[in-house]
Amino acid sequence: MTLLDRLxxxxxxxxGVEDTFRLLSRHPHPSHGEALTCKDYAAFLREKLGGNPxxxxxxxxxxxxxxxxxxEGRPRLILQGHMDMVCAAAGDxxxxxxxxxxxxxxxxxxxxxxxxxxxxxxxxxxxxxWLLSTGQVAHGPLTxxxxxxxxxxxxxxxEVDPAWLAGSDYLLNTDGFHLGRAIVGSASGRRExxxxxxxxxPAPPLPAWRLTLSGGxxxxxxxxxxxxxxxxxxxxxxxxxxxxxxxxxxxSGGLTHNAIPAWAEAVVFAxxxxxxTLLQNALELYRQADPGLTATCAPAEGPEEVWTAAFQAHVxxxxxxxxxxxxxxxxxxxxxxxxxxxxxxxxxxEGAFQVCSFLRSARREEEQELxxxxxxxxxxxxxxxxxxxxxxxxGERNNPLAAVLDRVWxxxxxxxxxxxxxxxxxxxxxxxxxxxxxxxASTGPDILDAHSVDERAPLDTLPNYVLxxxxxxxxx
Length: 476
Known about the structure:
alpha+beta; Aminopeptidase; 2 domains
């Protein structure tokens, strides 16, 4: 009997993983808001797998599982993923309150369009848990590890007790986005939050207008940064810097540090309705890569205060000067971005104008180049910043765990895996410092447009990913 037959066929695999994903997604689970979802994972581990999960102070979850009989002497493998999600939102969706509405439509698993899906990384976790719940796969000793707050600087992984990793031989992370790829290296991340206290004065006796850029694709600032999508914050800031007589009362856009913004808007006082011709011409440069991005202008109810002229000039110069996009390509892995920056969010918070940017780099010296550029720009325009980050995970093509994955994939499909590095942060970069001897690789199911309301996962490739996991468990 083949492995596929043992698991009940492709439709059974699809339905089993989808049902498990829905179960694990029934509560909101933004970064640092995973407590209820952690309980759902723990219940599954106890009730379906007979495990005894352990939860730490930040809701990371550990669950050792015994080997199937006769495989006790095999290497111990950690299967690892994160429970949080980037909560891109549209309309009245509130990520802290509202669970994701999951829809299976046109061959894809997706949300109802009001939020991101959370397939990153919930779908990989669901595949692991459903597969093990079938009892149809022979494996050596396992440790299941589910972490929190990955999307905000790998924060949960940083809190993992090194003892949780000790004694294991391999770690397979399920946070890859592209089936058919084995990841053996990832970029560092530098999360920058810049702030300058607001400087306000009475609004001028002029009409107020709301300028809106909306409909952008947004996306993951590592996985999608090279796709040429527009950044509405940059586009709107550039337009406002050239708007004759315009006085800004409000300016905001984006969601978070590591998501490419899909929208931006401003309220401005101006003598007459702003002419959007230059802005619309700029949008045409992105029409192929970001076809839904549009600009509108409408009368607004003006607030009582606007930014001072000096404050406005400094903020716009800062936003326009921050780097956004690909900085270099990685010489060690052709076709992979080497360094980049994302201007992800801007807006008023706690009496200040706050700007969130995110740097990624395969090489530390290039991260430092971008960091020094941003630091100098901030100093010139009166912004102060706080910085957090995580290291890179240097890639090696001769990774032995990736070699096992490749052998299994070849046997199942007749094709080799693409073994390489990615321009995103992955938790193995943190685990490497905690347990240097651990051999790690990352794979994942296909996920499109992660970190956006268009996030979706093709259902027809889910069985292929589950079979790769199952074959690897049996091959180790």
